[in-house]
């Protein structure tokens, strides 16, 4: 079933296909990653837990020669992963809510082909501050992500495989119309919903901006919504919020493991015959101005577009913007 709608210069295709089994996706990933001619360098921020940890496991299984750098605070959790990665794994301990630490540790990284940004927090305290007096949630969910990209872009641009940036957050729910432009940095008190919307919408805007820059033509930018994943990110929420989320995920069987989630995200990134075309993922329902020469495809989670067609990538509840974009 194809539904095509036009919004100004933006075309939206909603595409439904047969459900792709995880093992089929894994086989496709393994085939593509095993064909890489250069060693793969992957940097995973927030790689000691949840989706980031799943990325580390999956990359190592599919591409044992890949070098995986994990960045996070939990050294004991990192050591468990490093025992599996062997000599191809490394760990950089850092509090990635602090911009000063990000600037310091990125200087230690000498090569990166894929940058995975999975750090984040869901907190009911929308006004918590870091030691640098930055809103804590935005420091993890937005500011720190942008700084990692900014510091590592020179390496990503020169990647022989084509650099890829994956910001794992929520590419479906950001609403630019609800941004509080007088409190963008959440410097004054606000609600939990305002805080998370700022993070979602800001990620969309920066991903679209970076993808539109000619100097980034060799880099793929992705803002992904992973769907329901079995991670500990909601464990610190009040029980009256935490339990319904887990119950809904269990009843609907929506929750997948971090490794399965990583399989589908890697499936999106593994199609490396991109030439110089810029790809990014962004909000589906809201458009911050016209985007010239683009196509947006809504790809439901665990559904697949034929990889033999180089014009499409697999998406995981994400909207795919294809083409060199120029925001007007």
Q: Could you walk me through the main structural features you see in this protein, from its secondary elements to its overall organization?
A:
InterPro entries: NAD(P)-bd_dom_sf, SDR_fam, Sec_Metab_Biosynth_Oxidored. This protein starts with a strand and ends in a 6-residue tail after the last strand. It has helices at 22-34, 50-62, 75-85, 99-105, 136-157, 192-212, 239-251, 258-270, and strands at residues 2-7, 10-15, 41-45, 67-72, 89-93, 114-117, 163-168, 219-224, 279-281, 294-299, 318-322. The protein is α/β, with parallel strands linked by helices. The strands form two sheets. The protein has a six-stranded parallel beta sheet with strand order 5-4-3-6-7-8, sandwiched between helices. It has a five-stranded mixed beta sheet with strand order 1-2-10-11-9. The protein contains eight helices and eleven strands.
Can you tag this structure with a few keywords?
single chain; 328 residues; alpha/beta; Rossmann fold; 6-stranded parallel beta sheet; 5-stranded mixed beta sheet; 8 helices; globular; disordered N terminus
Shape: globular
Order of the strands making up the biggest sheet:
5-4-3-6-7-8
Helix content: 25-40%
Poorly predicted tracts of residues: 1-21, 269-328
Write down the oligomeric state.
single chain
Main CATH class: Alpha Beta
Estimated radius of gyration: 19 Å
Number of strands: 11
Which class do the helix and strand fractions yield?
alpha/beta
CATH structural architecture: 3-Layer(aba) Sandwich
The whole-number mean of residue pLDDT values reads 66
Helical run tally: 8
The secondary-structure element order is EEHEHEHEHEHEHEHHEEE
Instruction: Give the number of domains.
Output: 1
Main sheet record: 6 strands, parallel
Distance between the termini: 31 Å
Q: Which topology does CATH recognise?
A: Rossmann fold
Percent strand: 15-25%
The CATH homologous superfamily name equals NAD(P)-binding Rossmann-like Domain
């Amino acid at each position: 079933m194809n539904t095509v709608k036009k919004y100004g210069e933006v075309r939206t295709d909603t595409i439904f296909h047969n459900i792709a089994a995880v093992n089929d996706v894994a086989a496709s990933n393994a085939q593509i990653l095993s064909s890489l001619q250069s060693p793969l360098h992957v940097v995973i921020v927030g790689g000691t837990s949840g989706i980031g940890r799943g990325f580390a496991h999956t990359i190592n299984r599919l591409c044992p020669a890949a070098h995986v750098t994990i960045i996070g605070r939990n050294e004991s959790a990192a050591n468990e992963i490093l025992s599996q990665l062997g000599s191809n794994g490394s760990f950089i301990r850092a509090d990635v809510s602090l911009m000063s630490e990000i600037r310091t540790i990125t200087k230690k990284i000498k090569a990166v082909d894929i940058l995975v940004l999975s750090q984040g927090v869901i907190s009911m305290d929308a006004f918590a501050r870091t030691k640098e007096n930055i809103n804590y949630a935005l420091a993890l969910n937005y500011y720190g992500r942008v700084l990692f990209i900014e510091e590592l872009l020179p390496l990503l641009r020169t990647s022989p495989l084509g650099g890829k940036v994956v910001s794992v957050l929520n590419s479906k729910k950001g609403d630019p119309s609800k941004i509080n432009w007088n409190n963008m940095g959440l410097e004054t008190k606000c609600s939990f919903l305002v805080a998370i919307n700022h993070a979602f919408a800001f990620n969309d805007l920066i991903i679209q901006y970076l993808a539109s820059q000619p100097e980034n033509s060799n880099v793929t930018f992705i803002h992904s919504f992973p769907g329901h994943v079995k991670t500990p990110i909601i464990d610190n929420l009040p029980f009256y919020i935490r339990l319904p989320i887990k119950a809904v995920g269990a009843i609907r069987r929506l929750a997948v493991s971090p490794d399965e989630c990583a399989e589908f995200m890697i499936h999106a990134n593994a199609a490396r015959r991109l030439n110089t075309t810029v790809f990014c993922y962004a909000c589906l329902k809201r458009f911050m101005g016209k985007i010239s020469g683009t196509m947006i495809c809504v790809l439901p989670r665990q559904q697949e577009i034929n990889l033999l067609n180089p014009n499409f990538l697999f998406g995981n509840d994400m909207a795919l913007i294809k083409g060199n974009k120029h925001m007007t």
